[in-house]
Amino acid sequence: MTGENKMATLKEQAQAYESPKTLNIAELESVSVDVEIKEETRTRTDGEEFTIMFIEVDGKKYRVPKSVISGLNAILDKMPDVLTIRVLKTGEGKDNTRYQVVPLDVKEQTIQTLRENSII
Predict the structure, then answer these.
(1) pLDDT tens, position by position, for the chain (120 residues)?
(2) Is 110 left (phi over 0), alpha (psi -120 to 50) or beta?
């Protein structure tokens, strides 16, 4: 007896395996604009390095494309009191994917200002 614990079979281990992957911010129903954003450098299969931005929610990483940052910047320019957003994704692939940032919650003061200016 070698003291080894019985492990799962190779087949069982393979069936239970989930490849670690980064999700996309568009997969979340809503995101606080105050969530911490992080960067991570990765290496492509050809050896080239690249950097992604991501947020962590419930222990999972969600990639944040630069176009989402740009879209949020435009919203914050007009509505600096936005609290949460939703990101909508259309298209597939590197060149055909588009993101739209939608403000969800804003401070009451901003809502009042929008009403006063007949925007809502």
Answers:
(1) 455 666 788 888 888 877 667 899 999 999 999 999 999 998 888 989 999 999 999 999 999 999 999 999 999 988 888 999 999 999 988 789 999 999 988 766 566 666 676 655
(2) alpha
Q: Nearest CA to 22 among 5, 39, 9, 36?
A: 39
Reported pTM: 0.71
Nearest alpha carbon to residue 53 among 63, 43, 67: 63
Distances (CA, A) of 15 to 8, 19, 22, 23, 115: 10, 11, 20, 21, 55
Any idea which residue has 């060149």 for tokens? 95
